[in-house]
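Troubleshooting log. The previous structure file for this entry was overwritten by mistake, so regenerating from the original sequence record. Sequence copied from the archived sheet and checked twice against the printout by T.R.
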Amino acid sequence: MQGQQQQAYDRGITIFSPDGRLYQVEYAREAVKRGTPSVGVRTPEGVVLAADKRRRSKMIEPDSVEKLHKADDHIGIASAGHVADARKLIDVARREAQTNRLRYGEPITVETLAKTVTDFIQQYTQYGGARPFGVSLIIGGVINGRPRLFECDPSGTPYEWQALSVGANRADIRDHLEAEYEDDMTLEDGVDLALSALTVHDDEEMDPHGVDLATIDVESEEYVHLPPRRSRPTWRDRISSRRTRTRKTPRSSRADFSMPYELRESPPTVERFLELRDAAGMAERSREAVERGLPNSSYAVTVVDGAGETVGMARVVGDEGSVFHICDMVVHPDHQHQGLGSRMMDALMAWINETAPPMAYVNLMADVDGFYEQWGFERTAPASTGMYYRVES
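Regenerated output below.
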């Protein structure tokens, strides 16, 4: 009898059950749980949005799976649940943002946009002949230097969060966010936290094209969609290594990673440069060549361990216009497999992307398969063949 009563109440969105429930809204929330998770993190430096957009089949074009959307120059939206429902609400948000600019001559606030979208959602919970939206949204942005982060759920209620997730495994991801979130996190720490949250229930390496990532920082107040090369399995190593620099208690998934590492924007000494190349089994360089070459580096980074020893290095050389060459990428064998190479490449590529003009050519000699491709590098073979000429003494 009780089941028959529930069936009667859940057929109409306009009818409350005797215990005050709207079953259709609850069913919509269940639809959201069936979607892959999306995560939002708010930090003093900005907002991070991340989404798991793995494909059901490798035949699906990765770019056709949309989980993150730009609502306005300063606002982004992540979704979980029915994709078609999400697209409808994204259109509502974009129209409202543009209307606000045309009507008032200023960008819409994040809170106003979130409440406008939830007002639209709420209409579909009280009129007959319609169903609730089977999607939840995370609306994040920065206005007047203030980061804001809101959730819009199928009931049409807006909630403001410091960090949240929607979609599958929400409870476990929320526990992870609550345990790891800190009020003074940098934007980069927020990126690390968001990506680590997406892997809470993922023991396998994540496809670089299976993660969507975007940020809105307080300085530019602009939505920036980060390319797939930034969203890759090696984020796990980078999360562990970066936290050792910012947390009092170093933590890592690797038992032998017991010391903090610091990334410095400076070249190594000549002596250490020669020692690192020798330890890694790289081709010999003369002291004269190194003494002349190191000061002419366009950009260089080193990694220093807790004892103050330089254990990694990498640099960029070239004309700083049409050609950039990445070289001397070395991590001492005793400190490998800690994500240090990824950290150095991140720094090099960040500098190149900020410095290089359009159509600049960036090259390197790859001695590891599948590593540099994560930053968008492509093999030149068989179209061309790498060659070298060594000046003999």
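The radius of gyration is 25 Å. Archived copy saved in two places this time.
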